[in-house]
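Materials and Methods. Structural model of Glycosyltransferase family 4 protein. The 364-residue sequence of Glycosyltransferase family 4 protein from Candidatus Limisoma faecipullorum was retrieved and submitted for structure prediction as follows.
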Amino acid sequence: MKIVVTGTRGIPLIQGGVETHCENLFPRIAAMGNDVTIIRRSCYVTSENSVKDYKGVRLKDIFAPRKKSFEAIVHTFLAVIAARRMKADILHVHAIGPSFVVPFARLLGLRVVMTHHGPDYDRQKWGKLAKAMLHAGERNGVKYSNEVIVISNVIREIVRSKYHRDSNLIFNGVDRPEKSKNIDYIEHLGLEKGKYVLALGRFVKEKCFDQLIDAFQKSRHDGYKLVIAGDADHPDAYSEALKRQAAGNGVVLTGFIKGERLNQIMTNAALFVLPSTHEGLPISLLEAMSYDLDVLVSDIPANKLPELEEKDFFRCRDIQSLADSLSAKLSENRVGRTYDLSNYDWDNIAVQTMSVYQKVVSSK
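The predicted structure was written out as tokens:
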């Protein structure tokens, strides 16, 4: 089966939840004997990831303007044309913004699977016009795709209630890591094993890292440091202000990291915190759980995984609630938690995704 994938910035070594999803899923799809091509946005291709294939997945680079308002829609339009020329059996579109062009893909005769990763119109970075386009993208993707995949029960209910359509629930996944035995990178950052709180993600408003910094200063955290791993895709006033706030409060910023550096940071943290107001099914949280870390997350529906406990949540947007919860977690210093991650196995996720493809190809 020839499968063409778009909607992602690309793989490998590109920041983002959809990107991590694709980096884990599609090598497994390719290993099943399929011809898989991921179409990457040219503006994210660097000397570090300028390759033609990744673990059996072909990589095709197509122009995308490095401007958040137009990047996804321009690139996906061009990707649809490329998929038609490649005579794809399946065009798999990720996220609701890129899904705006699904009707165009169907008019070209393509069979389309859309994965809904979350209601991106809730993100604070978008203005009214962009939010309207994202709503339209969600509508076009859900109504006109041959099949819709959702990554959480929360998103499945959105699809059912707004569009009266059934969807295929296939969770995000995570691999059990081989934890790093090294500490040279964290020592380089001035960190001590088991004596720092970790947050991870893009520097955008809905991640609420500014509120996390304020709450950390209010909390009782003797001997602990705060580390935020990540960066902005598109530097703006918020991300620059966040970096100044971090520098003024002794917060360690690592930038975007992968591989051994991320492994060391995750292996040796005391606590993982996710304070965001918007998520689909956060891969960063699943990754923290795979490292057996104690976690503290906002009480939004997407974060309420059945594997977590009540004391793992704080009231979203409530800095004092976050500060109090941080104090409680750090005083307890709970280490070596284990979680049942059987629902998030990438191999099973690949099999489930293939079954959706086969349903589409076999239908008239």
